[in-house]
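User: Structure tokens for both sequences below?

Assistant:
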Amino acid sequence: MSASATSGKSLDLFSWFYKHENMETKKAVEALSALAQEHRLAVFRLLVREGPNGLPAGAIAERMAVPPPTLSHHLAHLERAGLLRSWRVERRIFYAVDVEGTRRLLTFLTEDCCQGHPEICGYRSGGGCRDDHHLSQSEVRDVAQRAGVDPQHG
């Protein structure tokens, strides 16, 4: 294989990684931007509490005391950002948290946690929280030392 062919392949690979990383960043910024508004954040948190069955748009509007046209705008913004999903049942539109979209955002935010040792902060590799908040500070230090990181000095 010629040097130019090899160079072209590495450039293609570099371009793919560059585009992939930028796309992940762009999606994360879009999701965080969607949550950076009081009503949208409140709607998102409400739907997190409701779980996968979600709520019809009318019930969300009542609970949030937001006019339906305004709420519709906020729901669409959250859905475009990949944080909500919607479906129609007869004449009603239901909304629920998009668990995978939310998980992707959380994974993106924590993937480099603690210099590649997310278990120090209570995260699993690849994202997701562990329920280890019962650990004392010395037990957290033990986890960090096993990972080769001193949590007090970085």
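Moving on to the next sequence.
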Amino acid sequence: MIENRQYKRYSAGDWASLGLDGSWHPCSVHNLSGNGLFLETFCRPPIGTVVDLKLSSLGSYSGTVVRHAWDGIGIQFRDGEAQNHLAPDHRQGALFNDVELNHLDPVVSSR
């Protein structure tokens, strides 16, 4: 299956919190890219819902729920927030810089 994606996805395994209506829900980052991420979570906000994200190693972001799956949800970062907000240093921006992403495994699944 050939994927038609603008950004490469990378396995993350990072812990996160999903903010919705003033409540925070624990979840795990399954994979991420410069455009969004897939969270493993039992929480299912409706598609189109804007949510807040706290990623344990990358900071805080906001995004829009774009997909539901049996094991989680797909979230697209709002207006390129990740590319514009992350500094290209090791502490925050490394995961979105292809040169520094070599240590992560590219995702091959259809997720």
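User: Anything stand out in the second?

Assistant: Strands lie at 10-20, 23-32, 36-40, 50-55, 59-69, 72-77.
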